[in-house]
Amino acid sequence: MQPKPNARLSSQAMAFVLAGGRGSRLKELTDFRAKPAVYFGGKTRIIDFALSNALNSGIRKMAIATQYKAHSLIRHIQRGWGFFRAERNEYLDVLPASQRMDEVNWYRGTADAIAQNIDIIDSYGINYVVVLAGDHIYKMDYEVMLQQHVNSKADVTIGCLTVPRAEASAFGVMAVDDTLRITQFLEKPKDPPGMPGDPTHALASMGIYVFDWKFLRALLIEDMNNPNSTHDFGFDLIPAIVKGGKAMAHKFSDSCVKSGLETEPYWRDVGTIDAFWQANIDLTDFVPKLDIYDSSWPIWTYAEIVPPAKFIHDEDGRRGQAISSLVSGDCIVSGSEVRNSLLFTGVRTHSYSALEYVVALPYVTVNRNASLKNCVIDRGVIIPDGLVVGEDPEEDAKWFRRTETGIVLVTQTMLDARAAKLG
After folding, report:
1. Residue 187 annotated as binding?
2. How far, in Å, CA of 361 to CA of 116, rounded?
């Protein structure tokens, strides 16, 4: 397929979303779901951000590679993203690791996940591939990145965050020249290189790559036949292109989508309990750093048909109220106080209970006289009468998962074990 000079580049591109990660740092939150399927922001899942960015950017061909604990992710995609129509030349394919190439290998790495699906990508008739991680929270117009890629005639263009040098050691870091051509790709360096003209900051990889499909296709076939390769973009393909080809950095600040309320580029890896809790709680701020109310760049998701939230009882000590909080549909706040918290769909809080800095995932029930603070409650958990979480660190750690900063994760399995022990 020849590039169309007058068409938006996004119409000639596909998004390939890597959504197979274990997400092990989220502990029990990923016991039954892949990290991209973890809930976020009241009604969405983490993967909805990458998919929405692609859709809003004008990309209408997408593929999602899944591997670990993929059922809830696949079900979410089927229910919430089933509006693509083949007759309009739109496609969204879910590509589980299914030993398509042979009967031995599942996806062996990020590059292999694409390599095993070359025939499917060929069938899309596209010129460009935007490779995305399915587990980050951000808003970005990929059309801007595609334009830079084509204009610079790069072999690969890599999306990069501008981060303080002191924090860059946690990332893959780019050393670049004045034209943003990448001269070195360093995985978690102890002494990260600064940016030209700004030595206090470094460019860190977002795990977003743009390739010409013809170039990437040849590279993947070569990599598949290399017995010494780990078949990973960050470890194998990108360093090879930096060394022998033309790799360009794309600054996230050039393509991030901001409403009038957002003052700086927003990107979060919610890969730990602390980061997950913080990013959700941040949404309750008076002016949050991420504007999820921006109708010009909607975050698409599976929209359940549920009744509005409801607040009942109005007497001293038993008033249903929520202050500086996000309360989703089908929630009933009954005679309880909710402060600085985020309640997902279908949460029930009963009389005399108090929630402060709580992230309650869908269909949580908080029974009477419970006091919850600084915690994440997994989907469907039933909090027993009078349970206190967030006041006694030793008691919290005895029954639940408590992080070093004092955030407590509560699951039904933990509560059942506690109940069995206490008799």
Report:
1. yes
2. 35
